[in-house]
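Minutes, project check-in
Item: structure for the 392-residue chain
Input as provided by the requester:
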Amino acid sequence: MLLSATAVSQIKATLKAGIASGEIAGGNLLVLHKGEEILYHEDGLADREKDIPIARDSIFRLYSMTKPMTATAVMILLERGQLELFDPVSRFLPGFKNQSVAEDGRLVPVKRDVTVHDLLHMVSGLVYGGHHQAGRETEQLFQEIDRKLLSDEPMGTVEIANRLGRCPLSFQPGATWEYGTSADVLGAIVEVVSGMRFGEFLQKELFGPLGMQDTGFWVPDEKRGRLAKTYGDDGNGGLTLYTGDHLGINHQANHAPAYESGGAGLLSTIDDSAKFATMLLNKGSLNGMQILRPRTVEYLTTATINARQQAGFDNWYSLLGHSYGNMMRIMTDKTKAGILGGTGEYGWDGWLGAYFANLPQEELSFLFMVQKKDAGTLPVTRKMRNIVLSTL
């Protein structure tokens, strides 16, 4: 499969326009068909202050694009019989014993324990923040994490997960869907079950075997020149440098963190991320390395939430036509989606705009990397993938 010269020209023009308008500072795009590259394009700057252009080996903060990798780590342990989906989280993390739910201004006991299954599908009642009691207490915890982040006693992965367990839940486990800190707790569970640090487990079982040499929870000195800067809207149609820490993540990524966030902590390049995406599209293997078995990948990439939980997910307007499961969106009705796509496609994005999508029916992977505060899936991302998908 080849993209037409017209489509390639339109993609390049769209990215250039996004940079010229101040939507982003720069980014790179990679499209693969059957694991083979059919398009790579980069434009703009990784560092506007030093006039350093985006390059193929630029390193990006993944933020929530970390989550599917965390779910994959859980699937590895599931295949080995080291945990199962209905295990109560309290089996691994005592902070999840005797939890409470914030309901109508009061705390009530949980009707059942939060399980690994609840965490994987974001139906646990754990949240990131908000005006309700669960959100306020979670925000207070992250403020404490950020205060201690660069101190002599930063909070660690398991400690933070246990503290999250002591925050009230936003709803009874399994009652609905709400985006939150479930993946961070999963990272701690992987640490407890495996007996090694979460990052060490990922390196041994996922990044090392796949040859993802530039993926991890921090950037060593010899690679720091490749780390893209982050920019945010300046309020006047332009961009301003952003350097703040967020969700317990050290933005400078200049040392090994105590907190290895399964929900937001990884950094990677577009080629490393493509190896992960291709492994999933290949039903769990890449270059002779079997990371997951095909049936496990089928479960990992399938919508799993029920109708009641779907009602909560449907509040995410930009993801109409999608459902959710195992830390990823899954397109279930392409006629309702706000983008061109295919039934069964899956993937996720990050707070700073890192994005991937796999389309199994088309055997296609689409990856786009930027560093834009509060980005998620950007208009420029949707525009470029619409050009690609319209050519199929």
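Outcome recorded: The longest strand covers residues 36-47.
No further action items on this chain.
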